[in-house]
Each structure stands twice: as C-alpha cells, then as structure tokens.
Design goal:
The chain has a 5-stranded parallel beta sheet, sandwiched between helices. The chain is an alpha/beta fold. α2 packs across α3 and α13 packs parallel to α14. The protein contains 15 helices and 5 strands. The chain has one domain: Nicotinate-nucleotide-dimethylbenzimidazole phosphoribosyltransferase (CobT), large domain (Rossmann fold, 3-Layer(aba) Sandwich), CATH 3.40.50.10210.
C-alpha cells in the first residue's frame, strides 16, 4: 500500500461550480418572491445548486447522518462529564432510537450510519456492520503520548475516504456529519489551538454535557500539554492526527476530503467536525466550499475554527447535545431552500412597446 499524502487532495478537489451559482442567482432575481425576502434560504439554495452543478436545484432526497465513534484516552484523567470508555453507550442509544439524533432522523427521513473507528469496548457489544471498520481500541492520552501510531492514523484516514466513497456510490446527496465520543472535544480543541496558533484557555469549552470548574481546569491543562506535542508536527497532517488526534478524528478528516472530491455536500455539527475541517483545509484549501456549518454549538474552539474556514453557522439555538443533532436541525432549512428555489414561479415578463 502506498503512503497516503493528504497534499494530493489539493489537486483533486475543485470548487463548486461558480457558473452554476451565478445562474442560480440570476434565476432568483426572476422569481415572484422579491429578492432578499427569503433571507439566508437564498444563499443555501445557491450553495446547493453549485454543489449539484445544476439549476434549478434538485430536492434533497437521500440525506444520510454519518456518525464516527471512538473513545479517547485523555478522558481517563477526568476531562469529561461522561465516563471514560463510555462512547459505546452513546452508540447503543443511537442504534436503539433513543437519542435526539435518531429521533430527529426518523422524523426527517434521513438514514443513519454509525462507524466505529476506535471504541474502547468489546466488539460483541455492537452490531458487526458498526464495528467492522475499527482501527484500534481507544487511543493514547494525548497530553503524554501519541493518540495513534502513524500507521493507525493512515488507516483511519483511509477508512474515512472509503466511507465517503461508499456513501457517494449509494446515492447519498447530502451528509449530516457528527461524532459519538468521550473526550472528543478535548482532542478537537487541541487541534484548533494548534492550527490557529492560540492558547489552551481560548479554546477550552464545557463540552456537550457541561463540566464543572475543576473539570474545566483539568481539560485546559490537558490541552496545554498536548499542544506542546502538537506544535512540532504542524507541517505534517498525518503526524498531527497521530500525535493529538484519534481514530474518529482522522477518519472524519479523510471523510471530509473525499466528500469534496466526490462533490458530496456536508453539514458539519460541532467542534469535532470543525476541527477535522481545519486539518482538511490545511491539505486542500478549496475543501470547505463543500461544507455547511449547521449550528453554533457554543464551544469557543468551534467558533474559532469556523471563522478560519469562513463558514457561518445556519443555526444558533444553544443546542449542545452533539452527536450530529445540531447539524441535523439545519437539514429542513436546506431542504426548504431547495424546494423554494426550484418550485417558486418566475415573474411574467412585462410586455414591451
């Protein structure tokens, strides 16, 4: 197997079709509803039309929620309100239809796919189609050791690429991206701080399940220590993901890059997917044009990452539950934007002479 070079994606990824976007803007000017009256729905429709490469825009018919799952070793030092090694319980809630994201996906007609990249549990606890791609069990403590070996980081990236190809080949026309992890926001905040050149305290948030002040201080200290290990390898994305990432984070990074190659639009959820987007942006600067920020999660690291990628969240409703829920809430708005852009009538031409 050849060594994976993420810089190759820069040549593989093109921007969404700018000419089509201009055609969509021109058509919008001719609709019966006055320009500007639909607010940001116009922008969403034009983004989707450019991604699809056609006007009028097609309706979203096969959306898919894709959730990458893993446990992070840094959770063992008490940086999360959830128990270390407990991400498999989050997966089980999704599979059993008891989580917010699974309930909403059922109502919105979106499929759900869970990919175990690095859960720290016995494989027998979950279905074979979930665990069959696992890269490793758990990850190293990023404050004192590498999360992955270089070989594991590359395997996780290739896993994400393969999942993106499978979804594109299956006809998925929009991905809602999320993660199921314990310790994931600590890892993500470390990546954001490293890539944006900022301090740990600036990016340390309270997590999906809010933490107390003592836990926040432990989390901030862990990010500070991990940053010392991240900064020497900033020039190598694979080495960075091995040092302070995790199997799910590396897989999401590969997934985002390959979705852009396959021209599959993606709605990002919280800080984890945003941090992966930053890593992917370092490899291919055009890739973020294929993504939409579904929501503002309230995590300071997410806000910094989205600002760096020039992505403006669609929603800001204080939803911190994670697991793709906030991104999924943006799906109806994208669908509404597509429907209005495609089905609103054009104004009749005024007679001349």
């Amino acid at each position: 197997m050849t060594t994976l070079n993420l810089d190759d994606f820069s040549d593989l990824i093109e921007r969404p079709d700018g000419g089509v976007r201009r055609d969509a803007e021109d058509r919008r000017q001719r609709l019966t509803v006055p320009p500007g009256a639909l607010g940001r729905l116009d922008e969403l429709a034009e983004w989707l039309a450019a991604a699809q490469g056609q006007v009028p825009v097609r309706p979203i018919e096969r959306p898919k929620v894709v959730l990458f799952a893993a446990d992070h070793g840094v959770a063992g030092i008490g940086v999360s309100a959830r128990p270390a090694g407990g991400a498999h319980a989050l997966v089980r809630e999704v599979l059993d239809g008891r989580s917010p994201v699974s309930i909403l996906a059922d109502r919105l007609g979106a499929g759900i796919r869970v990919v175990d990249a690095g859960l720290d549990c016995a494989p027998e606890l979950l279905p074979e189609d979930v665990v069959r791609h696992r890269v490793r069990r758990g990850s190293g403590r990023i404050d004192v050791e590498d999360a992955l070996t270089p070989q594991e980081a590359e395997a996780a990236l290739r896993l994400g690429i393969a999942v993106a190809d499978e979804e594109a080949d299956a006809g998925t026309d929009l991905v809602v991206l999320g993660d199921l992890s314990v310790g994931g926001t600590t890892v993500a905040a470390t990546l954001v701080a490293a890539l944006c050149g900022t301090d740990a305290s600036v990016v340390t948030g309270r997590g999906g399940v809010p933490i107390d002040d003592l836990t926040w201080m432990r989390k901030c200290a862990a990010i500070r220590d991990a940053l010392r290990r991240a900064r020497p390898v900033l020039g190598d994305q694979v080495a960075l993901l091995a040092a302070v990432g995790g199997a799910d984070v590396a897989a999401i990074t590969g997934f985002l890059l390959q979705c852009a190659v396959r021209r599959t639009p993606v709605i990002l959820d919280g800080i984890v997917s945003a941090a992966c987007g930053l890593v992917a942006q370092r490899a291919a600067f055009r890739a973020p044009d294929w993504w939409l920020a579904g929501q503002a999660s309230g995590e300071p690291g997410q806000a910094k990452a989205l600002d760096r990628m020039a992505l403006n969240p669609v929603l800001d409703h204080g939803v911190t539950v994670g697991e793709g829920t906030g991104a999924l809430l943006a799906l109806p708005l994208v669908q509404a934007a597509a429907a209005l852009a495609a089905d609103l009538p054009e104004r009749a031409e005024e007679p001349t002479g």
